[in-house]
Specification:
heterodimer, A: alpha+beta, B: mainly beta, six-stranded antiparallel β-sheet
Amino acid sequence: MMLPHREQMLLLWLFVQAAVTVTWCFTDLEPGPGVGAGFQAQANGDRFKIEGRAIVPGIKTQDWVSTARVLVEGEEYIGFLRTDGSFAVNDVPSGSYVVEIVTPAYRFEPVRVDITSKGKMRARLVNYIKTSEVIRQPYPLQIRASGPHSYFMKRETWGWTDFLMNPMVMMMVLPLLIIVLLPKVVNTNDPEMRKEMEQSMNMLNPNPELPDVSELMTKLFSGSKGTSKAGSSSSSSSKGTRSAVKRR
Amino acid sequence: MTIMTYPVFFLSFFLLYGKGWRHVDKTGPEGNIDAFLQYGQDAVLVIGNGRLLRSWDINVGGLNWEVVLDSGSFQSACLVGQQNTVKQVAVLKKAAISLHYLSNGHQKWIENLPDSETVDYQTVYSGGNGEVYVLGVVPHSHITVVAYSVEDGEIIKQYLVEAPWLSNLQVSCTVVSQGVLTCIDSATVSLYTLDLHAQSQMTQMPLQTLGLELAPGFHPTLVSSQPNPSHPPLSEFLLQLGPDHYLLLQLMHLNFLYCQAMLVTFVTTGDKTVAAVMSPKNRTVKFNEQLVNLFSVETGRRLLDTTLIFNIDPNGGKPEKLFVQAFLKKDDSVGYRVMVQTEDHTLTFLQQPGRVIWTREEALSDVVTMEMVDLPLTGTQAELEGEFGKKADGLMSMVLKRLSSQFVLLQAWISHLWKLFYDARKPRSQVKNEVTIENLSRDEFNLQKMMVMVTASGKLFGIDSNTGSILWRHNLDNIPANAAFKLMVQRTTAHFPHPPQCTLLIKDKDTGLATLHVFNPIFGKKSHITPPALTQPILQSLILPLMDQDYAKVLLLVDDQYKVSAFPSTKNVLQQLQEMASSIFFFLIDSSQGRLSGYRLRTDLSTELIWEVIVPPEVQRIVSVKGKRPNEHVHSQGRVMGDRSVLYKYLNPNLLAVVTESTDTHQERSFIAILLIDGVTGRIFHEAVQRKARGPVHVVHSENWVVYEYWSTKSRRNEFSVIELYEGMELYNSTVFSSLDRPHAPQVLQQSYIFPSSISTMEATLTEKGITSRHLLIGLSSGGILSLPKMFLDPRRPEIVSEQIREENLIPYAPELLIRTEWFINYNQTVSRVRGIYTAPSGLESTCLVVAYGLDIYQTRVYPSKQFDVLKDDYDYMLISSVLFALFFATMISKRLAEVKLLNRAWR
């Protein structure tokens, strides 16, 4: 059990070392971009060509190439797409560049292309945070559109499901259901149960002196309707009914 | 279909209109178009001083091929054909000529030119007989003719011809007929001809013997036409002898057609070639009405029914170029359309008999600065407003006035209703709301404004922001080539009956001398106010919040003697200035010496130096200085923290953000720095240095924050950095801000982010009262304009989220900012090469007006906090009202039911 694990470790270590050497190799090549500015200054420095092809699945190239451009590091170098979707950006000095295909219709992932001072090329995924990370991409570039751009947010529509799933509505509907369904489930005629419930109600309403909110509201609204007299009479009548119920 | 190429006024982009497509190349000399050739479906371009040769498919808008040419400065290019087909293109460089296949761009052969050190090779010509002629000149000595075989590039013949009078082939010579080089010389006033095939000497033909004379001081030119590159050019050619004096000559017989014309060009359609001539209709009325006529080239006769009338805008300048698109009609006669380019960069496309199909203002592709001006109120509204401003003259008359104005309003309202009713009966397509200067008026929410645009060529435009239609244009004369412009609004439309007033400061960058142009921004008319003549170079201009008795803001101009002059300089203004002088401060920047200096105004309008900051110019140079916008309002003084305490913003209106870049551009040593300086006291509050970074730096400075963008050379990415300034938990003086009385330095918070695209410009949104949250508008190199919420650029974004921070609604820190296409305010309409973004508040607090200008102009509205003060377009009135009614009835019914129930209970 232990041995395979160690073997794994060894493998892992080897792999790490290999990765380190690989990255070391490339960091060795990095001075290319480093001196990039210097190379640009002396115009006779070696210039290279970034080649590739852009594909929009299911769309004829003629229909979209006229709106597309190939941007290398912003607008520092610009290439155009041929009628078959392939492109070549000429006159690029050695360095590391982000190659991007821009068209208002389709979305393409950018690719980072490294060119050594000898003209060796490689392409890798763009990672702005870990800039030295290498995930290889094919070179010459094969850039496939990942679909059309979405410029618009979907407008919120009013639907019954949205309405019902709203937490406020849920909060209102669930107690309602409980009020309607609970008496059916629990036998309220059972005197013991009734007693228990009354007790629990008393627990919930610790201060019986305090006016009930619902009562207050009914008072308020019936008062606003017209005469306060009617309101008081109705309230008194409600009191009366309550007493009547109690009496019963 | 028209195809045009525009290396327009030293800009390095090109437009190719086929079935409506366009590609924008690089900025600067590497994107310049040197030559444009067209054959059938292919357009061949030489770009970047002969660096690239590109062929485009005109129909598709895609590239056919692109090849890199050998280095060497470009001279000339031509198509090479044989037996009715064109298969190659020849490119002549300083020291070599190369031939490329038109089908794939491959090089057929390249040959070095003999004696290229001494001979200046300038033109290349091919007549379709299997030879390519390269013509070079040794100025004031001789012409060198080298003929190459198209097949293998071998030199067939090479000889010299004496021409001691000649200095430049391209200017004074052209090839006509079967390879006859024809030259004109103004010194000897003669026409020279040379048969290239015959290897003879030049024959001189004095113009006097032809009965012609040259306009004094005019440099004559020759124009020939080669309709098909596989055939020799026509034997007819044009000779221009004066500014408006052309001759159509035929080589064999030298019989000529005399015409007084402004412009002449050759047009070919099918196998017919005609000359299009533009000449004034009436000799006495100069320039105003021009006639375009077609003339048969062979006979020199005017073709019947080919007249086209072109009316020249008297303000626009003379026609410069004439392009003609000719086509054969069914009856084999020639029909045509013309495009006229005038001196003010206007293109007009006309059809017979003079109907304008479209006009294009190419000057608008180079907008330098702009302002948005509120539209005036309508006459009736203005009258109502004006009533309050006037002095009272008796109660009775006031009442009468009020009644009459109310009556006028009522009348306007009724007529408006009537118009609505009348329009409603018509189908919608017929109802046109033509915007003209006369019916311009402010809308309810002040969303429609006048955009005053200043272009680099010195042409001013007034554009309606709602429709984008140009309402007025004004071409300024005598604009220096490298002028800097500053546009200022001195009086807005709020001060009826005084007209609004804008002032444009035009400064020659070399001499520093400036002129003022004062105009009415609504009508574009020059104001009757004569601006002061400025004899001294101007260093700084500033607009003060002071107003003269006519409500015009005071413009102060500081000259190189540090003397200040005011415009308008009435007695009233000077008196106000004297009173205010001790509180007027200004700063000057000298980027060549790296000096920032602050001055104070004295009562005698001289100045005194108060502070000076030297940025060592050998180490770093000042790139930009950004202050705050004067019309910016900040609504909230602070931010409420999670623990209910308030962090007060440091809102210093005098704060300047000074950006410097290192002069050392080496990747390891380059850096950018930002200084926050108080413009009154010169106190430096903060300095931030980004090592291993370089420009271009884009800065936005607003409220209590500065956002800037730079290129990190170390990690090869664009980065944003934000600086926010806070006073702390309590305000020092909450009523008034004074730079002179702020003992505590502000707290500075800073955070940086990665931005995954390069940007061309940046600006912040602006609203009326500053309640709405802010967005940053970022012009991307892809042509999109991103509206990025400022919330993402907040130095208080935490790495670890706690309960309090969650309450504050801060987004946890993420190093990379996202570009979401949903945030593109221009959707899929690309705006190329955005040079600037202008933002203006509207009458609605939620809405900010945005204009992006560059090659294109794009105007839109943005709602940074959504439209909180406007109902949605699809607001469901039906649903709301039906729910209301339903609830109302439900209460009625339930009340009735409850009553019945109560009654029943009472009876029980």
